[in-house]
Fold:
Amino acid sequence: MQAHLDCVYCNVRQALEAARLASADADVHKKVVLKSLDALTKYDSYRTPAEMGGVIHHLVKEYSSNPDPYKRVKEDSIEMALSVYPGLKRFVEGDGDRLLRALEVSAAGNLLDAGVYGDLRAQDMEATLMKELDRGFALCHVDALREDLLGARNVLIIGDNAGETVLDRIMISEIKRACGNGAEPSVFYGVRSAPIINDATAEDAVASGLEHDAIIVDTGCSAPGLILDAADSEFLKLYREADVVISKGQGNYETLSDSAGRTIYFVLKAKCGVVAKDTGASLGDYVLLRR
Structure:
């Protein structure tokens, strides 16, 4: 998905927000914003919004000397997600269509996105998530996914934000159940190679308990999305050979929607007008899209 002028405004906001999380020094904030504005004058040279965002957030880390500005936010989002995990797991397991409900829970976890919603520590996440679960998917290709999962031996999930990894454990359990081939399939979970915004790294995925549910793999990419040209060769082999690939969140959609080279199921909340238009959804809709 191409970068748009709207992405410039969003990235300036994120630059200042991230700089304030990374450092208390107002001079650092000013330098980050000015350097970001300079980088954003070349907005049409970036292939995707996620690549643009990666440049901005690397500037934040460089000028603040803070390698993980969102570390505390990630820790808090994982803690919040763990607190609601048991209730949501019971909710899914008590439903007649467990796979669909698990996917809805996973999509609702996309709200734990500091790049869009800022510092989430002041929010009542349980109440927010339960309210969101009433909405369902505006675009829903679950029947196609169900068919593709049946008999699958290898499933790859490309992760998004850190807190979301907790709720993705519920989805992983139901994916294994949906494969229904007698032997449990191998489910791999791709994470960022280094901290970027609040996206999940291997350390974050382990903190969520996800290593008990899936095989955590490093994509080799440290942008807020999966850029295939930057990915590790071993990961790319897994990506190409997996029976089913599920991509979580807007960043991965931005980088893969036009260049995936294979069929992918995108699970996300359309949190900006640019992504909503590209998916064919409306702003704020949840999407389960086969492309």
The longest strand covers residues 186-191. Residues 114-119 have pLDDT under 50 and may be disordered. Residues 71-290 form a domain with the Rossmann fold fold (CATH 3.40.50.10880).
